[in-house]
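Practice problem: Galactokinase
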Amino acid sequence: MSFEDVFGVAPEGSWRAPGRVNLIGEHTDYNDGLVLPIALPNRIQVTASARADGRIAVASSGHSGVVEFAIDELEPGSVGDWAAYPAGAAWVLRESGYAIGGANLLIDSDLPSGAGLSSSAALLCATSVALLGLLDLEVDPAEVARLAQKAENRYVGAPVGLMDQMASMCCTAGHALYFDIRAMSTDQIPFDPAADGLALLVVDVKAPHRHVDGEYAARRTSCEEAAALLGVPALRSIAFEDLGDALDRLPDDVARRRVRHVVTEIRRVEEAVELMRSGRLRAVGPLFTASHASLRDDFEITVPELDVAVDTALEAGALGARMTGGGFGGCIIALTEADAARAVLSAIEKAFADHGFRAPSSLAADPSAGASRVD
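Answer key — structure tokens:
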């Protein structure tokens, strides 16, 4: 569909924001920890024009019809389904003092939803930069990320951390974003697998995950409860060297396993960054594999499709593999020699057929830039 066909006017511009894949550092963001995502070349694009009537009309290439609402009547819950995301972006911008006006918005995407690649954060970020762009407002990307997170937490009702939005807004091409949530600081870490004769496969196992459901919230609650029992503001405060003592102070095995995952995962991020800075990308592979084992056994958020994909990738020669994202479906990543990537993917496809799973799909994982206006 064209913008003119939907809205009867010409667009004023297009803005886009990418999805992300997290290299390592899973479920550490809401524990004040460390994460290391890259932005994907796959993006959500919002084409827009201004309106003078204080209303926003939203259409999507993936949904039929147009959803329309008044900006000054927005409140959490007032717009539902997929349109809650652009509505949430408009609501949070207005709540934060940005005098956005009415707009026509056409959303297009080559980013699969439900794959754990942060399509929701990309949609919020793309809508936010489009609405701000119509006013020629330049806002710090990290501030837009924080507003997008607020919209997803308070308007959509998903208790997500800040990693996805920061990756969508702040990543640069050829780098991973080293994001310290407690310090609210970022660093760009060189990450160019192709230059080292490597490939990073992203394989969608076609078992969709849902952040708004109870499992994600339950894991976050268990971490917060464990931190309270240990007398710290967040699990980031537990030093790796003090992990054994902390585990001994917890009352049950579930709490101990949740804490062990978070503390060891933060250490794995630190080790991965050190290796990447020194150009030893192949040595990062075993950290991926250790992360998956921790997510499977201690955090208990994998599903059979994820485990089969990881195990098969390793058996086929991958240097390391892990689930990525919130869990309970989504994607795995596998670090491979470039000339072995096709064989690893073929092995996963065969294993899925043998297990009776849906056929997986794969995405390019070239580290890309964050949100921008489309020239």
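Discussion: The chain has a mean pLDDT of 94. Students who identified this feature from the tokens alone can consider the problem solved.
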